[in-house]
Amino acid sequence: MDRRQRKTREAIFRAFTELLSQKPENRITVGEIIASADVGRATFYAHFPTKDFLLKELCEELFCHIFDSAEGVPHQHIFHCDAPDSVFLHLLYHLKNNDNQILTLLTSQNSELFAKYFKSEFIHLVERWVLSRKREKEWRVPKEFLVHHITSSFVAAVQWWSEQKMKQSPEEIYAYFLNVLGIEEGSR
Amino acid sequence: MDRRQRKTREAIFRAFTELLSQKPENRITVGEIIASADVGRATFYAHFPTKDFLLKELCEELFCHIFDSAEGVPHQHIFHCDAPDSVFLHLLYHLKNNDNQILTLLTSQNSELFAKYFKSEFIHLVERWVLSRKREKEWRVPKEFLVHHITSSFVAAVQWWSEQKMKQSPEEIYAYFLNVLGIEEGSR
DNA sequence: TTTATTACAGAACACCTTGTATGGTATTAT
DNA sequence: ATAATACCATACAAGGTGTTCTGTAATAAA
To answer: For residue range A38-57, what is the model confidence (pLDDT) as tens digits?
Structure first.
């Protein structure tokens, strides 16, 4: 991809992220974005057909990265990634680092917006985790219900955590999470 | 309140609710609302200063009713309300009835929007429920975390339920809910 | 290095949406 | 009957959206 393209794309993402951390999405105008990103109006629309699409692309970029890393998919920063083994704890570490701006956005006035995207990506990971962990016979509720529940619970835990300004360590949150889920420690 | 006022207010709510069940909130214009409600433009703005405010009022009207009923606060339809005693099961009954349009909205493309409002009202109820049910010493996680978790879990359960077209009975969902929360039956 | 391609800025634009203001009419309360 | 007020229709300015144009600079390919 052309270096110019990459730069403007990045500039737009950065500007939009910054604005999203300040005000609700529906009160952000394309005019503000391009002013903050310092690109021309036509340029913006050459990259993104609409503001909704920009949001979608941003989320995909953000979540794709963090979930790939959680699943051990090789990626750029694997060299200095020493987060622990459990998928959930691993994610909490990444979030605490705030590599990307996920936590900021998950706690902004647009939290629900991102919670939706976060869940829709995260649920696949949880599904695999559940399948690898228990026999179907042991479940006392439908698998889909359980997966949905765990997914929501994790996102809720993360939101609560960042509302607390992340006073707690990832391990503490992980322990809380396992506790309310009624799961014993030690499994990945 | 003037009958004319009540009628237009109702018409606007109805039109807005209908539109919300069809498309995302940010793509609904005031023009569409007043066309559907069949009221003049100036009239709309005499009632609601902005679309955001209309949404807020709608949510308050909707949730106030159902939560009051869940807490046993006397209200209009108490005469024919034979929903059971447990707060949660009681709510599920009301939702299944779909007295108001809460379930429709909680499953629409605007689900997160309503989930936010729903949670923010529901959390107070959960807080009281938790306090009345367990001693603080028994908690192995902070009270706020627990309350937040239960609130999110209930909303998640309701969303899952309506995504399943409410095939299950309120009792079944209630049982699932208690199960994943690790709670024994029998308490209100 | 030269050439062709492509992304860009800036400006102008038609269109839509918002929120306000006007004057006249019908409903309501007194 | 009368005063108050909620209503409609219309018009309007201000601002946002998405497109189109021209000229220029960065990039890739020869």
So the answer is: 999 999 999 999 999 999 99
C-alpha to C-alpha distance for A141 and B172, rounded to whole angstroms: 9
pLDDT band at A77 (very low <50, low <70, confident <90, very high): very low
The hierarchical CATH code for the domain A56-181 is 1.10.357.10
Q: Higher confidence at residue B77 or residue A68? A: A68
- Would you kindly state where each structural domain of chain B is located, as residue ranges? 1-48, 57-181
Which CATH architecture does the domain made up of B57-181 adopt? Orthogonal Bundle (1.10)
Closest C-alpha to A129, from A184, A179, A86, A66: A86
pTM: 0.89
Q: Which nucleotides of C are covered by protein (CB under 7 A)?
A: 6-12, 16-23, 27-29
Identify residue A92 by its one-letter amino acid code.
L
Q: Where are the alpha helices (DSSP H) in chain B?
A: 3-20, 30-37, 41-47, 51-70, 87-97, 102-107, 111-131, 143-163, 170-181
Query: Which residues of chain B, if any, have pLDDT below 50?
Result: 75-80, 187
Give the domain B1-48 fold.
Arc Repressor Mutant, subunit A (1.10.10)
Closest CA to A95 of A106, A79, A86, A85: A106
In sequence order, the 6+-apart residues with CB closer than 8 A to the CB of B1 are none
Contact A157, A183 (CB under 8 A): no
Q: Tell me, in Å, how far CA of A4 is from C1' of D29?
A: 18
CA of A1 to C1' of C10 (A): 25
Query: Is B149 close to A153, i.e. CB distance below 8 A?
Result: yes
Question: What's chain B's Rg over C-alpha atoms?
Answer: 18
Chain D: nucleotides below 7 Å from protein CB are 5-11, 15-22, 26-28
Chain B contact for A152, CB < 8 A? yes
